[in-house]
Amino acid sequence: MPLALVWFRQDLRLDDNPALHEALEQGYAPVPVYVHAPEEESGWAPGGASRAWLHRSLQALDADLRARGSRLLLRNGPTGPALSALLRETGADAIFWNRKYEPATQPRDAALKREWREQGLVAESFNGALLFEPWELATQQGGPYKVFTPFWRNALGRLRVPAPQAVPATLPSVAETFASEDLDALGLAARPAWDSGFWDKWHAGEAGAHEALEVFLDGALHGYRSDRDRPDRVGTSLLSPHLHFGEIAPWRVVGALEQVRTAANAADVDAYLRELGWREFAYHLLHHFPATTTANLNPRFEHFEWAPGDDRQLQAWRHGLTGVPIVDAGMRELWATGYMHNRVRMIVGSWLTKHMRQHWLHGARWFWDTLVDADLANNTLGWQWVAGTGADASPYFRVFNPVTQAQKFDPAATYISRWVPELQALPVAARFAPWLHAELARRLAPSYPRAPMVDLAQGRDAALAAYKRSAPAESR
């Protein structure tokens, strides 16, 4: 049987894997390979939390392959030379992979495909990550979308869910003569193990992804439309890191949702599908506007007066010491679990870019390093959205009040109490804004900051004044 390399990247699963499925369909014996080349990510090499997850996900993938008689080969980059060398070593006639969409990887992959085809090899790539690839949807004028609602309306009208593709119970063996790096040698695992608290919450790998989907369908899906904004409840799917690493296909998630759809839960199903739509929109934007990973999409902000970088304030924000309980709770949850509830992401992002008036890249870089679901498309969209600088963004002049946000979405201060335990002795009403209960806070929460690092009213006023000054002269 002829051999074909199956090049794994952010598609770390066996079911619903188009590249693996096609290799088998064409009669090849797959040789699974992963190439570690973070230096090729053009300034966005995976952060610490992503590397920790990747270590476990690769471990799980190799175990799944071995259970079927195969195994995963690990190689260090650069990618092109590593794969070309393996093609020669194995004598493989073909190479199959699923596409990535980041600005640094698309041109590299296209060049490799041309090179291998010129050598007479079969080289084919597939969509293994998205419901719609970024170039498949366009406005009526033929251009890219910048507003989500018409994008998603178009997508829903064309959405078709493919049938699941299960991997065979057995796979051809991979010869022991084909060398592989040791997983530990890739240096992915955290040293020291600062991520130890992550794994009480997460189960990396394909089995963990399917388990998370089942738990969601049985639980948080019911009431998702309202509870998804409540950090004090288990109201979300927790599928984002599994989707990012490709441990489950998005169309498998859609298919499962449609199977359980009823008249009673239809609004919740539609609300979750809409969140998957935002993921698709993020990839659409990244493909068409690749510079937005570091540059504002909205040119108005090219001359916006961001505050000078303040290391002391940024460190306080990163480590949950701002003096604003809901902000501090979110940042501590992030550090402890590699995750932050989406509503809280918006609150801490607004605090950073509005009250602190720090450039959104400070937040994007920190999230990139600390989130297990750090994804270049979604991270870019999220930060440009909350900062008001991107597509279909929340306007900059919409400044979240973190106190009222906490009172609305964490009404019993349950989330705050969990992550800011020094406030637990205070009455619930005082936990949202302890500086308004100064004497009580001094006695019952002496270790917590006496006041926010930025006065809420003054920070809001300064942000709005800076925004007004940034308006084009003809609109003033």
Task: Briefly characterize the structure.
With 476 residues, the chain is mainly alpha-helical.
Summarize the structure in words.
The chain is mostly helical and 476 residues long. The protein folds into three domains: 3-128, HUPs (Rossmann fold), CATH 3.40.50; 130-164 and 206-288, Alpha Horseshoe (Serine Threonine Protein Phosphatase 5, Tetratricopeptide repeat); 299-475, DNA Cyclobutane Dipyrimidine Photolyase, subunit A, domain 3. It is 46% helix and 6% strand. The protein is built from 20 helices and five strands. It has a five-stranded parallel sheet, with helices on both faces. The mean pLDDT is 96.
Record the SSE blueprint.
Elements: E1 3-8, H1 18-25, E2 29-36, H2 48-67, E3 73-76, H3 79-90, E4 94-98, H4 105-118, E5 122-126, H5 148-158, H6 206-218, H7 224-227, H8 240-244, H9 250-260, H10 266-288, H11 311-318, H12 325-337, H13 342-355, H14 360-370, H15 376-387, H16 402-409, H17 414-419, H18 428-431, H19 438-444, H20 456-469
Parallel strand pairs: 1-2, 1-4, 2-3, 4-5
Helix pairs in contact: 5-10, 10-15, 12-13, 13-15, 14-15
Keywords for this structure?
3 domains; 46% helix; DNA Cyclobutane Dipyrimidine Photolyase, subunit A, domain 3; 5 strands; Serine Threonine Protein Phosphatase 5, Tetratricopeptide repeat; Rossmann fold; 476 residues; single chain; mainly alpha
